[in-house]
Amino acid sequence: xxxxxxxxxxxxxxxxxxxxxxxxxxxxxxxxxxxxxxxxxxxxxxxxxxxxxxxxxxxxxxxxxxxxxxxxxxxxxxxxxxxxxxxxxxxxxxxxxxxxxxxxxxxxxxxxxxxxxxxxxxxxxxxxxxxxxxxxxxxxxxxxxxxxxxxxxxxxxxxxxxxxxxxxxxxxxxxxxxxxxxxxxxxxxxxxxxxxxxxxxxxxxxxxxxxxxxxxxxxxxxxxxxxxxxxxxxxxxxxxxxxxxxxxxxxxxxxxxxxxxxxxxxxxxxxxxxxxxxxxxxxxxxxxxxxxxxxxxxxxxxxxxxxxxxxxxxxxxxxxxxxxxxxxxxxxxxxxxxxxxxxxxxxxxxxxxxxxxxxxxxxxxxxxxxxxxxxxxxxxxxxx
Length: 384
Fold this sequence. Notes:
Blueprint: E1 2-3, E2 8-11, H1 16-19, E3 28-30, E4 52-60, E5 67-73, E6 79-84, E7 87-92, E8 99-102, E9 112-120, E10 146-152, E11 155-162, E12 168-177, H2 179-182, E13 185-192, E14 198-205, H3 215-221, E15 225-226, E16 234-243, E17 258-266, E18 271-280, E19 285-288, E20 291-294, E21 297-298, E22 303-305, H4 319-332, E23 337-340, H5 347-356, E24 359-362, H6 374-383
Parallel strand pairs: 22-23, 23-24
Antiparallel strand pairs: 1-10, 2-3, 2-4, 4-9, 5-8, 5-10, 6-7, 6-9, 11-12, 12-16, 13-14, 13-17, 15-16, 17-18, 19-20, 20-21
Helix pairs in contact: 4-5
């Protein structure tokens, strides 16, 4: 439906009254991306941004029957608890990866829903990268955009695209919905060139690798996993492989991007229920004894590390600033690779790298430390 970046209420001292929508003192209005504390250019003290703060925004939604309403947070540092109309609906324990929260069941008859976030930006030793020395500042805040998604009850949650060779495009489509209705869905995949023209059309995605099985039989064999976002919903995977003839390969010099379009259909009327798109490059990468090879040709990697922080605003950089860093790396510093030290970074930055021809080595949050607590290790695996 659109981004929700304007007119959030913010407090440096989150309380139950604030989360419940009551009037409290010391509340200001802010826009996202936002940092919990602006810091001086020099001699910054990391204790200044370590706090338990609060954000809230009253939404008014013109709710449509059969639709779900999902909040997509691109980044909130570092432990975020999300409340909808006073009820906790999600918790995310990583300041560098995106997450979703389903507010559908908490929208009132008047279409209103109070969204509140309790945000812990302290250095918590139970989550990466904390627990020992960290050689960079870990600013707090809802520092990337928040988006409200309107999707059908049966919808595509995500897709994963890989290119096992320079002609094949392997796609996994993850579909969410209620268990019984998931058995009535089908999916097809199209691939569009950079101009939007189809080069591959209507490749069916199947529940299983054996095309000889009927869809009804296969769906009973395919495991359904609980949906971590929408209570009572399940997630199921479909997959397919397409072949692009005379494919234009992505390289650092010619970063050609295709668009994959997955379309979801639901019986009995076989109408299109949902559409999901993702851009990708067809490329093969391999490390050999004598170096790195891209699309079969040896490629000398010249790269730099990149942090996502800026003077004064910490992590709270706009999408345009994120993309500007990619342009500086490519066009001013003339490198062909970047390492996202030491955590996953903004999708705006990653997309700009893809468009400009920058190889990306991304990392999980961490810096020369492995936490001893089981929850630390579990979160590290989840981050991967």
